[in-house]
């Protein structure tokens, strides 16, 4: 690894991070013991001292950040010992690299100047014809099993595919959402509807949106009030969904409804795949801080044939658990935004000059960028661990997704604030280039800590599933 800047930087990165993380973890652990935590009778105080002292054995650990900056951006090399056989692979693997090459070749061949100009991180960047081409090339839903026309691509390959979409600034919302819904259809839809809708998705003729959140139930998702009442072979649905992203483009809404109000809230839910062109559905736009349109969806006396029901009547919880697990397993999607902000900040600092030299030459700049590079590297490892657990179906893994989402999005939020400061005053301007990406990161990062489950909900999932603590929510 000698001569490779990432390998040389990884040593001070790991040293600095270990000191930071262990110090914080032990301080929080001690705190939970209250007064006993500081009593010499209990061992926690020893851990508190050790976590700090060990990180200082080589001197002030903050100085490691100087080495990180110099090795990553200053061309400083250092000899590294022969590390022998490496049994851990920190990359996504060769198959995933091949997928990335294929997607990149596709973008190069098909992304016209007009499409490049249209590219946008939100659903405004969706282009039906381009999506149909992706479908025809097997690159829209390669994750699907062979029997449904997919390629059985692994989570690693999907992560590589998404990273290339991000490279080209292409939206990563309509595909992943429709993909998530497609897997629920495969597992729970009635045959006729399954074949029909999956066929439409596979040909790029239809999209789905998620209709979970309501004005009074976002985090408390199973408190949904949208009512579905049986009427012969149909259901009559009344209610309101909020934040139905891509609802303005979608052909189907994956709808969480209440079919039984007289039982515990999570026992009276049923899921429907409702065609958006049915009478009684109205969409109103909601515009967000991050240059994105989402929607409110009103449903008034919408008559839905029973064939569009997924799973059992009042069995919506089981279907939802399947869907939510996919959502939490997709934390790498959030990390990609964070990576873009970091890459763009480095590019900005390398190409923008102050007092006669590139800003990245300044030691203070490197000191500010280095912790972001470290935290992003940690986020990537956590996300890859989550992909690995999902690929190999490792038991007891259900908290890995929430851990990755929480860490990646909270770090993105915190670091976007700091990068705004670093790049000021350039970062004050909205722009699709240079420091404009930092400004966008600042506006985008806060939303990532909310949608897909807020940070507080992630923490309670980690506490319940990872630490075995009692449920904090009803
Ligand atoms: C841009 C965007 C796109 C979205 N897209 C979709 C979509 O396509 N489909 C869809 O169905 N939804 C979508 N959502 C909704 C999203 O899932 C919810 O906003 C999110 O789950 C939070 O719900 P809420 O907004 O009702 O906030 P609330 O649940 O009211 O939360 C408010 C605050 O209280 C905290 N809180 C709530 N409950 C607890 C608890 N038990 N313990 C501790 N703290 C708690 C939250 O963490 C938060 O800080 C989207 C949201 C946004 C912003």
Give an overview in words.
The protein has 15 helices and ten strands. It is α+β, with helices and mostly antiparallel strands. The chain folds into four domains: 69 residues, Butyryl-CoA Dehydrogenase, subunit A, domain 3 (Up-down Bundle); 107 residues, Orthogonal Bundle (Butyryl-Coa Dehydrogenase, subunit A, domain 1); 115 residues, Butyryl-CoA Dehydrogenase, subunit A, domain 2; 138 residues, Butyryl-CoA Dehydrogenase, subunit A, domain 3. The strands form three sheets. Strands 1-4-5-8 form a four-stranded mixed β-sheet. Strands 2-3-7-6 form a four-stranded antiparallel β-sheet, with no helix packed on it. β2 and β3 form a beta hairpin. α13 runs antiparallel to α15. The longest helix is centred in the C-terminal third of the chain and has 29 residues. The chain is globular and about 75 Å long. The N and C termini lie far apart (51 Å). 41% of the residues are buried. The model has no long low-confidence stretch (mean pLDDT 94). The site of flavin-adenine dinucleotide has 22 residues, from β1, β7 and α15.
SSE string, helix = H, strand = E? HHHHHHHHHEEEEEEEEHHEEHHHH
In terms of quaternary structure, the protein is single chain
- Unreliable stretches covering 5 or more consecutive residues: none
CATH architecture of the largest domain: Up-down Bundle
CATH-defined fold name of the largest domain = Butyryl-CoA Dehydrogenase, subunit A, domain 3
Compute the CA-based radius of gyration.
Answer: 24 Å
Find the structural class using helix and strand composition: alpha+beta
Count of separate DSSP helical elements: 15
At the fourth CATH level, what is the homologous superfamily of the largest domain? Butyryl-CoA Dehydrogenase, subunit A, domain 3
Question: How do the strands line up in the largest sheet?
Answer: 1-4-5-8
**Helix percent band:** 40-55%
